[in-house]
Amino acid sequence: MKLKELYDLYVSGEIKKPEYIDLMHEKHLVLFEYFDYIKDTDIKSIYMDNDTIYITVKGSDIKLLLDRNDKRFIPLEILNFHSTEAQEREFIFSLVSKCRIVFDIGANIGWYTLNFGKLPNIDKVYSFEPIPHTFEYLKKHVEMNDIWVLPQNPWVDFRKYGV
Questions:
Q1: Residues 130/108, Cβ–Cβ less than 8 Å
Q2: How far apart are CA 17 and CA 41, in angstroms?
Q3: Same domain assignment for residues 86 and 49
Q4: What pTM was estimated for this model as a whole?
Q5: CATH code of the domain in which 97 resides
Q6: C-alpha distance from residue 85 to each of 17, 89, 90, 135 (Å)
């Protein structure tokens, strides 16, 4: 049963206050599970407000939003597997270590874009993501991390041009 459903049962009088408190306490214990769980991961913190949940990554302090509907979303991957793909990340960083401009083609939600934007040798990052929903996350991540990159959406609706 969801938290809101339990609350509604209490407010309606269908469950009494002591039972409600016990049931809610059981639900809230998951917060402490996360507290213990993230200690051995690349996650520094999990934050939530009225309409957003995001994680902050240890070391880089990159903030990434969570998407309730995407079980393979990068922040959830970090939660599930305790880190990102360290070998791939190190290999890619070694490639861009001598670059001043980076093009992130297929940037997805911006994981590498954000990391590139924090590298001291990089002057500009151009990020391309063709999927509109994913591109919106890319833009949000760039904004909330205050990284100077140029997110580009090559998505064009050719119907309006009669093609």
A1: no
A2: 37
A3: yes
A4: 0.81
A5: 3.40.50.150
A6: 47, 6, 9, 22
113 with 83: CB under 8 angstroms? no
Q: Indicate if 24 and 45 belong to the same structural domain.
A: no
| pLDDT per position as a tens digit, 114-162 | 999 888 888 888 889 999 899 999 999 999 998 765 555 554 443 443 4
Indicate the angle between helix axes 132-144 and 111-118, nearest 10 degrees.
Answer: 30
Strand order in the sheet with 124-128: 101-105, 124-128, 150-152
- Which residues constitute the domain of residue 15? 1-40
Do the beta carbons of residue 64 and residue 141 sit within 8 Å? yes
Work out the average pLDDT over 36-57.
93
pLDDT (tens digit per residue) in 7-33:
999 999 999 999 999 999 999 999 999
